[in-house]
Amino acid sequence: MTEYHPGLDGVIATESSISDIDGAKGVLSYRGFSIEELAQKSTFEETAYLLLTGELPNEDDLKTFASRMSESMNLPQDLLTLLNSYPKQSDSMFVLQSAVAILGSYYDIDFDAEKLKAGDYESDYFIDVSARLLGSIGAIVATWNRIKNSKTVIPPSENNSYATNFMQMLDDEINTSNLIHRIIDATLILHAEHTINASTFTSMVTSSTLAKPAQVIASGIGSLSGPLHGGANQKVIAMLEEIGDKDNVGSWLENRLSSKQVVWGMGHREYSTKDPRANILTEMVKKLFEEQSGKVSGMFETAMELELACEAKLSQKGVFANVDFYSGILYKEIGIPVDLFTPLFAISRTSGWLAHWIEQISNNKIFRPTQNYIGAKPRKL
């Protein structure tokens, strides 16, 4: 009988050169570059190109790639009409997944398995398709936020970075600064890729069937939507609202731990030390706190108190605040609606899904795991 691993825990399902995690040391790298260096020195456009191709772009390649992304943020009128047809109370992840699934009707992002087999696709094809998907997905999220709030859609500017375009298209009433634009850019980098997580594996399975790229990304979005994956940072905000005031943190945490309930945003399956992405966001939290001194919300202060309380009680068990804890706080403080936290995660992770799509179909074998049958013995009617 084949050994059973629930959740495929510990099962090696692929070989990849895209990202690597050393959970004991708290290290995450993309294509050999540390996440710390990328978050500090790179941009989302540059990091996405690195994930897709394996190398950093030169100046001309980066300009072309970023321009294609920007062009694709200007959504076709028929797609805007479709977004306007959704009920305004629709879940944002449902809107994103369904809109992405039909992108092939509006963009030249077709895929032909026979052309792949014949070796007709060159690297420019994958870069172009990826740029169009990344640009359009960011625009869909920002545009849907405008539509559901009965506001006029804001077009992108070709002179803006991806992060700046997203924020301006999202809500022109949010007071942003250079620091806030940098925080959004950095969080896009930090969420871009994380080895074979649930949504990445989902997109790999879809890729292995030689499905079209929009369907690959739509499948990843569906997987990401669950609270045990991409929805965790929304759970963090609900948790902080439940706690209320920072003075309630101690008693709330005691009750939570004694009843063996999840403290959202604490601990990570891959890390026995602090999530390196959380370390980076910790510094950004401090900078935002300094920039907005005297103006931060009570929830922000409650979150900081909870993080300290959890560190005192859980750090000896290797449980620390993870990237979801800090990204949720930052997004909330910046003014991004809570229901867009997971779609924003999806925008970023699309770059990783696309990198795995390219890698998967370059040396493809359709996924077909087996099972241990535990049902009824043979029987007759």
Count of helices? 17
Tell me the span between the first and last alpha carbons: 28 Å
Gross morphology is: globular
Question: Which strand order do you get reading across the main beta sheet?
Answer: 1-2-3
Structural class: mainly alpha
Largest sheet features: 3 strands, antiparallel
| Percent in strands | under 5%
List strands and helices in order, with pairings:
Elements: E1 19-22, E2 27-30, E3 33-34, H1 35-41, H2 44-53, H3 59-72, H4 77-85, H5 92-101, H6 113-117, H7 123-148, H8 162-170, H9 178-190, H10 198-208, H11 213-224, H12 232-243, H13 249-258, H14 276-291, H15 298-314, H16 323-334, H17 341-362
Antiparallel strand pairs: 1-2, 2-3
What does this structure look like?
The chain is built from 17 helices and three strands. Strand 2 and strand 3 form a beta hairpin. Helix 3 packs across helix 7. The relative contact order is 0.15.
